[in-house]
Amino acid sequence: MNRGFILAGWSDLRRVVMRADVVLEVLDARDPLNTMSKKLERIVNELGRELILVLNKSDLVPRSIVEEWVRLFRDRGYNAVYIAATKHMGTKILRRKIKEVAPALPVIVAVAGYPKTGKSSIINALKGRHSASTSPIPGSPGYTHHVQLYRVEKNILMLDTPGIIPIEGSGLERIIRGLSPEQLDDPVPPAVELIKRILYHVPNAFIRAYGITEKDPYMILETLARKRGWFYKKTKEPLIEEAARTIIRDYHRGKIPFYVKPVVHNYV
Questions:
Q1: For residue 138, is it left (φ>0), alpha (ψ between -120 and 50) or beta?
Q2: What is the DSSP letter of 85?
Q3: Is 167 helix (H, G, I), strand (E, B) or coil?
Q4: What tens digit of pLDDT does each residue of 24-46 get?
Q5: DSSP code for 47
Q6: Using one digit for the tens of pLDDT, what is the confidence trace for 230-265?
Q7: What is the DSSP string of 27-38?
Q8: Which of 20, 23, 97, 128 has the most CB atoms around its CB within 10 Å?
Q9: Do the bridges between strand 79-82 and strand 50-56 make them parallel or antiparallel, or are there none, so unpaired?
Q10: CATH fold for domain 10-164
Q11: Neighbours of 94 (CB within 10 A)
Q12: What is the pTM of this model?
């Protein structure tokens, strides 16, 4: 059972989508394809709702790369924008896109995506300080007590509950997004796989993040533990488990340089 996040079931997410006119699917701009949900898209299409792909955390990616991703998605028929929600970058463009695709105004917007893609940050960025709550919506999903509707501006209403999608991606995505590093029984194997993925796309990532020149994942963990002074009390061996948790945590916080180019299709 997942102990890290309260994941919605697909029936819960369907109810969220049913309440909305427009659904924002939040992707991690560093790796959009691995954070897309085909099942969510099928639900949105089945219910006849409008979908916007929102590439969040775009401040962690070179602008030319994220713009190339957006062009790629638009060429494939998607509505797509990029944003850095925690820095309130791109919110005006997103608001314009919402009104552009809305079947009518005012429009109700829902936000959905995998854990740790920044759904709540987007809700907060759009709501801002001047949004006004309206009455709760009855018949709320089972994974939250109630759904509050906020008037973001005159013609945009927003469901304040993010739809947390059950993770469909690789085994690595399910582990590092489904549980917090502190809740992993053994953080070393997923950290090793994450290090391999990062090195594949950004070979100098750990030099830039920690000043570590090693290329072997286990040596990277050991070196980081030694640099931070993390050792087992009895054996004095490097505490690589703590280093592993740190790397997973720093990956999510954007402290390790990482992004996937649109031309790269061989995901590790």
A1: beta
A2: G
A3: coil
A4: 999 999 999 999 999 999 999 99
A5: T
A6: 999 899 999 999 999 999 999 999 999 999 999 744
A7: EETTSTGGG--H
A8: 23
A9: parallel
A10: Rossmann fold (3.40.50)
A11: 21
A12: 0.88
